[in-house]
Recover the amino acids of this structure.
């Protein structure tokens, strides 16, 4: 079994290298970003989410699954910091998987391959409403009560009843949705979790735009797990990433359309024919060292 896992890891690394080499001409020298689709792509020049920061910590700090494109990592760090500032003393949100340094296959996911996906564990409270650290082993029902663990390596029983922390989880969601630079396309969660969040927001959220966006973007996947124990965040390709091979699957929401469908004034200027010919004739960038990559 270990030999098979090692072979799979090596194969994924080699495939990522092959894709990087094959697509190198699509990126300018020093170009960074997501390429391909969430379930079949890679990321070049990925940003690493620090092992801990204001409002968060990694659930698996020793694993190399903390890389994403700059859009995703920036969106997460801003949202975590906002919850931390709004609710001082809150236990830090735990972050599960993003992706590998170069993207490509992920042992635990069918997506998380192009630097645009992240798993985040819910904020929780005890029965008295006191915030406590969340756990990725716990799924929440439509009433916001944590159910018994189902994972084989989960704790045998809950030490105390845990409840879904609607206030802090809503603030995290609304920060992502109202931060247009985050390019948040989907926040996958169960229908029960969505109902809890929208019920809380109807009573406490002053901005109707935030409610409208949440009703649209919070979504239980039609295939696979219900996501009743964590948020799965997915961001769109930026305009520049689209120009170099990044592909979105699904809708581009109206409030984000101008950001992802037009290359703005801060992006590279158009090149004249002479410059384009010269760049096309230059040698392709070197692909990364496959041996070094396989060992990561």
């Amino acid at each position: 079994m270990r030999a098979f896992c090692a072979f799979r890891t090596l194969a994924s690394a080699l495939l990522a290298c092959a894709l990087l080499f094959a697509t190198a001409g699509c990126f300018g020298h020093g170009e960074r970003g997501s390429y391909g689709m969430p379930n079949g792509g890679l990321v070049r020049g990925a940003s690493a989410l620090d092992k801990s920061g204001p409002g968060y910590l990694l659930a698996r700090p020793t694993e190399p699954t903390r890389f994403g494109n700059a859009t995703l990592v920036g969106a997460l760090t801003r949202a975590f910091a906002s919850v931390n500032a709004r609710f001082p003393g809150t236990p830090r949100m735990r972050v599960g998987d993003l992706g590998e340094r170069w993207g490509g296959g992920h042992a635990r996911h069918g997506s998380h391959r192009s630097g645009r996906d992240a798993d985040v564990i819910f904020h929780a409270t005890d029965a008295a409403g006191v915030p406590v650290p969340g756990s990725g082993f716990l799924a929440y029902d439509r009433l916001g009560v944590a159910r018994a663990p189902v994972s084989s390596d989960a704790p045998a029983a809950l030490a105390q009843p845990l409840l879904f922390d609607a206030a802090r989880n809503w603030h995290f969601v609304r920060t992502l949705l109202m931060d247009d630079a985050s390019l948040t396309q989907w926040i996958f969660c169960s229908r029960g979790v969505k109902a809890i969040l929208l019920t809380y927001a109807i009573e406490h959220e002053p901005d109707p735009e935030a409610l409208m966006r949440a009703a649209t973007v919070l979504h239980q996947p039609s295939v696979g797990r219900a996501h009743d124990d964590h948020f799965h965040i997915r961001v769109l390709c930026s305009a520049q990433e689209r120009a170099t091979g990044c592909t979105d699957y699904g809708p581009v929401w109206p409030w984000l359309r101008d950001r992802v469908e037009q290359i703005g004034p801060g992006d590279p200027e158009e090149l004249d024919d002479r410059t384009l010919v010269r760049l096309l004739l230059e040698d392709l960038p070197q692909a990364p060292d496959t041996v070094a990559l396989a060992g990561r």
Summary: Residues 1-29, 264-268, 287-296 have pLDDT under 50 and may be disordered. The longest strand covers residues 230-235.
